[in-house]
Design a protein that fits this description.
Blueprint: H1 3-34, H2 36-41, H3 53-63, H4 75-103
Length: 105
């Protein structure tokens, strides 16, 4: 993969990561303030301070890999979840293209 394309993908991945982090912070704030029971059930997941592999997996399972969040009945959280899913899979796709590009050399 040419360096120019790789560098572009790296920058794109960084942008996606920053956007993803912003959405996660907005979601955890909304969960903490409006759905404390669900937030406590996720081991009080936060992006930095209380981040553990178990908490991260619970958060991903609840929002990215299932539709359990719909039981909360929060349309704003639903919109954030759609954004989170798009960003998550975009990040995975960019990472996969970069990995294939690195190993194809």
């Amino acid at each position: 993969m040419p360096d120019r394309i790789f560098n572009g993908l790296l920058i794109a991945q960084l942008v996606v990561f920053v956007a993803y982090s912003g959405v996660v912070m907005a979601m955890t704030h909304r969960l903490r303030t409006r759905h404390a029971e669900a937030w406590n059930g996720m081991i009080q997941f936060t992006l930095f301070a209380n981040n553990s592999p178990a908490g991260s997996l619970k958060f991903l399972r609840y929002f990215v890999f299932s539709s359990a969040y719909r039981a909360l009945g929060d349309t704003m959280l639903g919109g954030l979840t759609i954004a989170l899913r798009v960003l998550f899979w975009t990040f995975v796709a960019i990472f996969a293209v970069m990995a294939v590009g690195v190993f194809a050399k």
